[in-house]
């Protein structure tokens, strides 16, 4: 073994007492969680938007975004339900680059994981208590879930993790809505095997103990496109893709069929303005086909204060990972979704 401990073991119970939700804030989160559950179960027909920065690298900028999003949510709440992306751990294909707030609570400083855990809890806590928005995060490290699962309302299993058995099994024990993405290859069977595992009971070792889970009926699909053998983007939000995905849901008899379209990544080729077109096309497909309308009921949108991305954290509210829609474009897109839904219901 070549591992070298650089800190004492983490006391999970002690960490969970940091930035702990109580009183009105806890009640509001639980109420919003019930609304989200109803949407995924098909009992509430509002559109779900999992929306926000690619990575939450700057607390002040994230909180400014959250305050604006909270106001926008109030304006569209009868047809759109938003959960804010507060992504604090980022997968890095070759290990290089910014790995998220949990690694670097200060993006300009050296990594500090212990301080990162505190920063992650504090950020989720502040978004909820100061703006009323509930939050989403990516389960990049399954063993870290107990450090944040009491604060988040939505969890994503990413394209690089969806084939991993530990991620699937831990998702089966999560008490929150969990979206599983198709892998970067675009192989939907991998994603559906993950959803099946997450929706069913599992027994496995976790945090040094043998555990059993009851299954997570809110586990569902996120279509994010893929890459062919030459590295070319292969989107999977088109009409036939949606029908094929729905057919696979039906074939496997999975609970609560629900599809979210990830409008960035390999669907857009990381051309952030393409997110607008992808949403528009999907709304047309929903209006054209009742089966699609019933199952495709969410979008994952990368959005921040400023358009695009930057290599270093110099411009306030501009992504240092994938390019995002800026705030003005975000408002226009959300209001366009709202208007389109309103027209289609008449």
Automatic annotation (TrEMBL):
Write down the Gene3D superfamilies for this protein, in alphabetical order. Answer: Aldolase class I
What do the Gene Ontology cellular component annotations say?
Answer: cytoplasm
Q: Which UniProt keywords apply?
A: Amino-acid biosynthesis, Aromatic amino acid biosynthesis, Transferase
- Stretches assigned to coiled coil: none
Picking any one GO biological process from the record gives: chorismate biosynthetic process
Into which family does the record put it? Answer: Belongs to the class-I DAHP synthase family.
Q: Mind telling me which SUPFAM superfamilies this protein's record contains?
A: Aldolase
Pathway listed for it? Metabolic intermediate biosynthesis; chorismate biosynthesis; chorismate from D-erythrose 4-phosphate and phosphoenolpyruvate: step 1/7
Q: Lineage, please? A: Bacteria, Bacillati, Bacillota, Bacilli, Lactobacillales
The source's superkingdom equals Bacteria
Question: What does the protein in this record do?
Answer: Stereospecific condensation of phosphoenolpyruvate (PEP) and D-erythrose-4-phosphate (E4P) giving rise to 3-deoxy-D-arabino-heptulosonate-7-phosphate (DAHP).
Which organism's genome codes for this protein? Answer: Streptococcus intermedius
Protein name, please? Phospho-2-dehydro-3-deoxyheptonate aldolase
Q: Which reaction does it catalyse?
A: D-erythrose 4-phosphate + phosphoenolpyruvate + H2O = 7-phospho-2-dehydro-3-deoxy-D-arabino-heptonate + phosphate
A UniProt-annotated Pfam family: DAHP_synth_1
Keyword Amino-acid biosynthesis present in the record's keywords: the answer is: yes
Q: Does the keyword Transferase apply?
A: yes
Which GO MF terms are attached to this record?
A: 3-deoxy-7-phosphoheptulonate synthase activity
The catalytic activity of this protein is classed by the Enzyme Commission as 2.5.1.54
């Amino acid at each position: 073994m070549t591992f070298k401990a650089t800190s004492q073991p983490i006391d999970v119970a002690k960490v969970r007492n940091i930035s702990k939700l109580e009183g009105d804030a806890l009640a509001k989160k639980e109420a919003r969680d019930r609304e989200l559950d109803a949407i995924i179960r098909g009992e509430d027909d509002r559109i779900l938007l999992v929306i926000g920065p690619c990575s939450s690298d700057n607390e002040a900028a994230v909180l400014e975004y959250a305050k604006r999003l909270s106001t926008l949510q109030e304006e569209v709440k009868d047809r759109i339900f938003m959960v804010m992306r507060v992504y604090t751990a980022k997968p890095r294909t070759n290990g290089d680059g910014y790995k998220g707030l949990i690694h670097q609570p200060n993006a300009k400083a050296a990594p500090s994981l212990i301080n990162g855990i505190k920063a992650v809890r504090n950020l989720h806590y502040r978004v909820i208590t100061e703006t009323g928005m509930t939050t989403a995060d990516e389960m990049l490290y399954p063993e870290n879930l107990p450090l944040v699962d009491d604060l988040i309302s939505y969890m994503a299993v990413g394209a690089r993790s969806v084939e991993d058995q530990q991620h699937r099994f831990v998702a089966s024990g999560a008490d929150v809505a969990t979206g599983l993405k198709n892998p970067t290859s675009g192989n939907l069977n991998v994603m559906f095997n993950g959803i099946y595992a997450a929706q069913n009971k599992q027994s496995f070792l976790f945090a040094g103990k043998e555990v059993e889970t009851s299954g997570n009926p809110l586990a569902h699909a996120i279509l994010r496109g893929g890459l062919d053998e030459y590295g070319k983007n292969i989107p999977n939000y088109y009409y036939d893709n949606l029908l094929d995905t729905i057919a696979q849901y039906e074939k496997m008899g999975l609970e609560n069929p629900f599809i979210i379209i990830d409008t960035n990544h390999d669907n857009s080729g990381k051309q952030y303005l393409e997110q607008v077109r992808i949403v528009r096309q999907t709304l047309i497909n929903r209006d054209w086909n009742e089966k699609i309308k019933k199952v495709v009921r969410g979008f994952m949108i990368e959005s921040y204060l400023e358009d695009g991305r930057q290599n270093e954290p110099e411009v306030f509210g501009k992504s240092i990972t994938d390019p995002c829609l800026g705030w003005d474009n975000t408002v226009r897109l959300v209001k366009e979704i709202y208007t389109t839904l309103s027209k289609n219901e008449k």
